[in-house]
Model the fold of this input.
Amino acid sequence: MKLYYYFVIIIFFLIPNQLFADEPSNWLKNEIDKILMAYQNKELPNENRFLMIEQTINNNFAGTGIAKFVAGESWAAANNDTKKEYIKNFKRHLALNIASMMQGYSDQNYKLSKSKIDQKNQIILIDMEIFSETGSVVVTWRVKESKNRYFIIDLIVADISLVVTKRSEFNSTLKNVNYNLSKFNKILLEQNNESYQKIIE
Done:
């Protein structure tokens, strides 16, 4: 009888751990599915589809933190109004980029691996394998837990970081305007408008 109770106690403690061990992966799957379902709903006008996707991305990406990192040295020299405008422009730029990437995968099957914790950097890594007729590609999502919820801080495709790539890309343009974030905002806004028009056509 004692052995039976001992067994029950072990199961009691093990089951919750198994249930919640993949909580980050389950959360990420729900958010990815929201984007994919928006693409798969052919009745949605293109503009409405993008706005839904943009909202999902803005809710789940650490947009402000990524924006600061990508701005590099130009961030410190900018005033508050310029910073606010830049964050707004960057979040739309990020949404346009992610939406474009996810559209390419919208009709393919995918599988998420169990989440792994990078103890050194205190981040969660989740691999997403996307299958096609010619093979598969792996996208690694870098997730951070903050204020009792998860945020995506980067994604890696073919060992290339989106955030690091954006920092390098932005730095080239910022260099041309002497790292003036106000002037860069005008360039970024114009790029966003062009990309947005292509999406809603």
